[in-house]
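During the first year of the project, the team set up a workflow for recording each protein of interest as an amino acid sequence followed immediately by a discrete structure-token representation. This format lets reviewers and collaborators read both layers of information side by side without switching files. As required by the reporting guidelines, we include two representative entries from the current panel. The first entry is reproduced here exactly as it appears in our internal archive.
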Amino acid sequence: MRLGHVHLSSAHKLCSYSAVSLIQDRAVSRYLAAKAQATPTKSTPTTSSPQTLPNPPINAPIKTPNPTVITAEFTPVYTCGRREVGTVSAAQQAHLRCNGRAEFVEALRGGQTTFHGPGQLVAYPVLDLKRHGLTAREYVCLLEKTVIATCAAYGIKAMTTEHTGVWTGPDTKIAALGLHMRRNVTSHGVGLNVGTDLWWFDRIVACGLEGKRATSFEDVGVKGVSVREVAGVFVRKLADALGIEGVDELADAEYLNYVEQPALTE
């Protein structure tokens, strides 16, 4: 099994939240469709026409799509989690949009309002938890440990606390997690601050945690590191954590085709 990785941004072009979400949603839909096809359906036998279901071949491999991860760097956007959908007032949305400098989007992920923008690594793994033998809670812990290992690669000591996410101290958060799962297929993921302008976080109570503040690689003294470089480290650490043998780096146009390529379940 291998992990496919596509990085959708470049040094000269950031991505909009909506554009990346569309690609993610298409990948999830294809994953769910493949799962539906792999699930056997039972025919209802009738008294007049009895039916016998054929037995599948013994030890027949189940073909499922490749696990993948999308990474990107967004144009400025504030997003709220699914629990806040419909509750953010027009005045609050206007404040968040900051006279057109940022977008505001209601998302399906868990968690509360946060910021994504230039200098932040966003990573969206799309994979089947059941295939990897993970519960939802174990997956959250795996992502947190992956972020901690990524930070350690740059000499940053990070940790978990009683609050979700990854922290460099009791009150300083370097990465937020917001996830969505459908039939054990994951979407959304991690926002890791590399060179993010932390002023954007000062305008909100990030993730609903009073008295806490955001930090970044640059804020703790690690400068001159690109989001794309950190993305590569994160993806390799994720592959290691999942027990995947290697990473396939994909061009933008290759990504959805890669999702459709079946990989044999081990």
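The second entry, processed by the same pipeline in the following quarter, appears below.
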Amino acid sequence: MNLISSRYGKPKGRPTKRRNMLAENSKKRWQKSSKTVDEKNSISMKVPGKHCTNCTLVIKQQHSMGYSTKMELLCESCHESYGSVFSNFQDEAKSSHDINIKLVSAFLSIGRWHAALETFSSVLNMPTMERKTFAKGMYNLSGKNKEAKKNMLEMSRQTAREAHVKVDATLKNQEIIDVSVSYDGTWQKRGHISNLGLGIIIDIICGLVLDFEVLSKCCQNCVVAGRDMGVESAEFHIWQKGHADECDKNFDGTSGAMEMHAALIMWRRSFSDCQIRFVSMLSDGDSKTFQFLSHNKTYGSHIKIEKEECLNHIAKRLGTSLRNEVKEWKVKK
């Protein structure tokens, strides 16, 4: 089988002969078990048909779309069809099945990808969905999440604005208000080698998220397509041009710089998206983001961003320094 990361379940390398053999065996077992199911679930009813007097109706499984199977009611003698239906609800607008979307969402929520879903299906002796179907499910989920994100952020920004107006009534008639926010960044994994980084802005008064930005140095679809087609091939370059609007990669640089660049993106769009100006930033003691924003003059040269320190972080660092001094003094003594 492919080597699978113990944490993220991403396949490394091409499928081996053993993996292909296991997939074929699983497919054969599924076909055998599906025939048995058809025989057990066959409806032995004698009904008049168009081409024969006595029809024995049986349920046949035609084909599968991921984990949703199309079942058709047929006559064994004359093969006349009495209708067909999928085993799961299908969204006509996006031509996707509900069970596939839910499975994609479930595996993504635990940090797994298509390779883990294949292993899950093999253990249960079930046919799995193709990588293309999995990617389509991710795209549909992304569209739904974007709408939910937009609505939630609008509610948070409106609540924050009302909270600041309660504190200072003069802000009520102002189109753009100045607020103090807390900013911090995080990564998918430690060590400053992560491909994913996240920056978050939180209002100090109400404690709600006003904006966030996700930066990615990698697109899994691009990696798979490059591996299958060849990175230098003409087919890959043609595919990449059509994939540009859906590509997950939106950052070129080091993982440590993600926090600074995510802050710059959100500070620059604070006028258009939030009608808010982040003039004061509360951070965890790291001055790189503040210096980066000040150097780029986000709000122009006439408005300067102020930096505030978190007392909890200062107390933590001061306590650590004092304990280290005590240890050194005991060793010297």
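For the second entry, the following points were noted during internal review. DSSP finds ten helices and 13 strands in the chain. The radius of gyration is 29 Å. Both points are flagged for discussion at the upcoming steering committee meeting.
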